[in-house]
Amino acid sequence: MFYSLLGRVVWFGLKFVLRRKYGPTYVPKSLLAGGTIAVAIAVTLAVLRATRDSD
Questions:
Q1: What is the tens place of the pLDDT at every residue in 25-51?
Q2: CA–CA distance, 6 with 15 (Å, rounded to integer)
Q3: Which of 1, 20, 30, 51 minimizes the number of CB atoms within 10 Å of its CB?
Q4: Cα distance between residue 42 and residue 50, in whole Å
Q5: Most distant CA pair in the chain: distance in Å?
Q6: How confident is the model at residue 55 (pLDDT cuts 50, 70, 90)?
């Protein structure tokens, strides 16, 4: 319980400090979509490779 609270305090505190220092940053939707697709492809290839190696 304590570690969860400590983690949240650190996470939100770090976000607060970075936003005050650098301002809000927004990722373009096209970059976000491309990153999501790249991660999905990487996970799919890893799963396929793991199942092929185990046979």
A1: 777 889 989 999 999 999 999 999 988
A2: 14
A3: 1
A4: 12
A5: 53
A6: low
Structure tokens at 9: 């305090």
Helices and strands (H, E) in the chain, number of each type: 2, 0
Q: What angle do CA 39, 40, 43 make, to 5 degrees?
A: 85
What type of residue sits at position 32?
Answer: L
| Rounded-to-integer distance, Cα 4 and Cα 31, Å | 31
Phi, psi (deg, nearest 5) at residue 31: -70, -40
What is the rounded CA–CA span in Å between residue 36 and residue 28? 12
